[in-house]
């Protein structure tokens, strides 16, 4: 560096560079000198030079000479002669061609003072030549060496290495005090060894050493602070949870636990402080406080969510079942009852939530938001259940119609005996089903009055009146030809007028079969219980059959024949079960009787023949006759015996008369 500055400030001046090779071997100097000159030339080429001397050769500044001396041990005399010759060259160095180089820059003695002043002026004005004093240079070099030595000694200190390794995984008790002691020991050793050097340099190097040592231990210190923060946060979470489980108020538990654990963190922070370091630990403390606040916020949100969900579940349980039951049995008091139920359950839930929220120390706006959300949830439960029931309104209408139509006022199944007014029963059942439809058509949670029931009744039940009106005027407007109800917003509409009309049409078509079956059953019952001819036929028979009646009175034999025929007909009636066969209809009854008639008649005749062929047994009149065997069910045997005895008496009576 000095060479470059000298080349830039002063004119070139040759200097002799003499390289002395001792203990010359057998290798000729002519072979060694080119190698040495080549190495010197490489060094010259690598030296940075000013622009003016970029291409200046080495010979412009230096005279390079290479001298070889023989070995002192082998050729002592020759060595001494060569040294004496070389000494003479130094003695006569200023002679022309001497070691002092060229004489171009030689100044006369009278001008030396002025020349020296100019040279010194140039040196002072150029900062590149402002070199420190020798004392400062020595102090700088030596203090740096001592500082490096103490830094290495500290880094290899066994106690420090153990602390550095342990602090990576856990908190080290007394970390700050122990580390401060090790640092003080290293710095005191530096002070002891560097005490005799320049004070300014010593202090500067000591400060640099201290900074380097603190940089070395700072990661361990940060790890220590991180462990203290993590443990404090975990302890806070445990203590906070225990306080809440013990029933302590949320806000009180949060404030108490936060204050206690921040104090513990400050104590742990003081234990980790290093005396030599002035590090700002407020960021770590602020981060811990943010973590604690974030945990408190998350726990508060979780508790509030759990509390809200609990009361919502209670509301759902308290409202869903009763609302569904009320809508299933819909009547004029359904919606007022649902409204009272909603108000009662909502009031109870709001009171419970307000009491539970008192421990959270919430502002009025936040509390009002939660309570409003709970009230809206209760309304949503009712509306959801109403919409669910509205989706199955047709099933509910058919169930209600079936119950009212098929059961009497005592909830007993109806038996269609012919005395019931099916038209009135049908109208009552359909009116009740229409009432259910009108109740399910819209949500009525307010005090507003609507005309849905009147509209449905006038449009769907009074069909004949509507038909007559339509006949008189074709300009009438169907009140159900709309997609909304009057004075009912769409948000509270469950079934639109058009949907009501469609549902009613489907309801009538699906219940028509039940009514038809009831009418058929009633007519069948009437036919099965009315075997007499009409009164006019009875009168006609009495008038027109008077002569035949008188004939029967004059000849009792006809009465016997008629009586025998009646018995035979009665036996056939019982055997064939004619009334039972005709319950399923006329055609099935006739077909069944046609297959059973001939076998039954043949059986009766065979029985009569068997009874007629039996000999008359002489028995004691005081003894009871032998019991007649029962071959037929439901009184058929007695009828057969009676007919047989009547036939026998009818057969023998003419003989007796002839006799």
Automatic annotation (TrEMBL):
The keyword Ribosomal protein does not apply. One of its GO terms (cellular component) is endoplasmic reticulum. Pfam families: RHD3_GTPase, Sey1_3HB. The keyword Transmembrane applies. GO terms for biological process: endoplasmic reticulum membrane fusion. Belongs to the TRAFAC class dynamin-like GTPase superfamily. GB1/RHD3 GTPase family. Residues 636-649 have a biased composition (Low complexity). Keywords: Endoplasmic reticulum, GTP-binding, Hydrolase, Membrane, Nucleotide-binding, Transmembrane, Transmembrane helix. It comes from the Eukaryota. One of its GO terms (molecular function) is GTPase activity. This is GB1/RHD3-type G domain-containing protein. Residues 612-659 are annotated as: Disordered. InterPro entries: G_GB1_RHD3_dom, RHD3/Sey1, Sey1/RHD3-like_3HB. Residues 1-103 form the GB1/RHD3-type G domain.
């Amino acid at each position: 560096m000095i060479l470059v500055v000298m080349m830039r400030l002063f004119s070139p001046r040759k200097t002799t560079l003499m390289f002395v090779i001792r203990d010359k071997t057998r290798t000729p100097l002519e072979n060694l000198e080119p190698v040495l000159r080549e190495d010197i030339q490489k060094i010259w080429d690598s030296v940075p030079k000013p622009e003016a001397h970029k291409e200046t050769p080495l010979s412009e500044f230096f005279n390079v000479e290479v001298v070889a001396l023989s070995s002192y041990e082998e050729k002592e005399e020759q060595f001494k002669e060569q040294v004496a010759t070389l000494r003479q060259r130094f003695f006569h160095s200023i002679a022309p061609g001497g070691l002092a180089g060229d004489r171009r820059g030689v100044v006369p003695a009278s001008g030396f003072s002025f020349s020296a002043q100019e040279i010194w002026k140039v040196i002072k004005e150029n900062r590149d030549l402002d070199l420190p004093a020798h004392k400062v240079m020595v102090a700088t070099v030596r203090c740096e060496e001592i500082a490096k030595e103490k830094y290495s000694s500290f880094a290899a200190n066994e106690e420090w290495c153990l602390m550095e390794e342990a602090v990576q995984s856990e908190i080290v008790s007394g970390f700050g005090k122990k580390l401060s002691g090790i640092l003080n020991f290293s710095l005191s050793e530096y002070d002891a060894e560097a005490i005799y050097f320049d004070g300014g340099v010593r202090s500067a190097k000591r400060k640099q050493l201290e900074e380097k040592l603190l940089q070395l231990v700072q990661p361990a210190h940060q790890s220590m602070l991180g462990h203290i923060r993590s443990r404090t946060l975990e302890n806070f979470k445990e203590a906070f949870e225990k306080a809440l489980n013990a029933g302590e108020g949320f806000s009180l538990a949060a404030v108490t636990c936060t204050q206690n654990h921040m104090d513990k963190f400050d104590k742990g922070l003081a234990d980790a402080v290093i005396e030599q370091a002035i590090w700002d630990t407020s960021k770590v403390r602020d981060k811990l406080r943010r973590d604690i606040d974030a945990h408190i916020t998350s726990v508060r949100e979780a508790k509030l969510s759990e509390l809200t969900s609990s009361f919502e579940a209670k509301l759902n349980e308290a409202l869903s079942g009763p609302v569904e039951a009320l809508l299933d049995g819909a009547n004029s008091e359904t919606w007022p009852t649902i409204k009272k139920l909603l108000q009662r359950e909502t009031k109870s839930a709001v009171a419970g939530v307000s009491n539970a929220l008192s421990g959270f120390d919430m502002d009025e706006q936040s509390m009002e938001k939660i309570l409003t959300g709970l009230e809206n949830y209760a309304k949503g439960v009712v509306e959801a259940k109403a919409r669910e029931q509205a989706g199955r309104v047709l099933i509910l209408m058919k169930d209600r119609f079936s119950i009212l139509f098929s059961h009497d006022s005592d909830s007993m199944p109806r038996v269609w005996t012919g005395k019931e007014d099916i038209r009135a029963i049908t109208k009552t059942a359909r009116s009740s089903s229409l009432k259910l439809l009108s109740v399910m058509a819209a949500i009525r949670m307010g005090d507003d009055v609507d005309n849905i029931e009147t509209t449905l009744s006038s449009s769907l039940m009074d069909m004949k009146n509507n038909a007559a009106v339509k006949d008189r005027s074709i300009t009438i407007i169907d009140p159900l030809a709309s997609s909304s109800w009057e004075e009912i917003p769409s948000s509270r509409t469950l079934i639109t007028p058009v949907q009501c009309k469609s549902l009613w049409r489907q309801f009538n078509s699906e219940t028509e079969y039940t009514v038809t079956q009831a009418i058929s059953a009633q007519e069948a019952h009437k036919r099965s219980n009315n075997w007499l001819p009409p009164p006019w036929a009875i009168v006609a028979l009495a008038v027109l059959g008077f002569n035949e009646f008188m004939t029967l009175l004059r000849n009792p034999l006809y009465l016997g024949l008629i009586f025998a025929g009646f018995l035979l007909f009665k036996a056939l009636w019982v055997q064939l079960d004619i009334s039972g066969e005709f319950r399923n209809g006329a055609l099935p009854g006739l077909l069944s009787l046609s297959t059973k008639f001939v076998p039954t008649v043949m059986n009766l005749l065979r029985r009569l023949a068997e009874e007629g062929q039996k000999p008359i047994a002489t028995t004691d009149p005081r003894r009871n006759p032998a019991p007649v065997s029962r071959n037929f069910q439901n009184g058929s045997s007695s009828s057969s015996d009676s007919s047989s005895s009547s036939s026998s008496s009818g057969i023998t009576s003419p003989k007796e008369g002839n006799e």
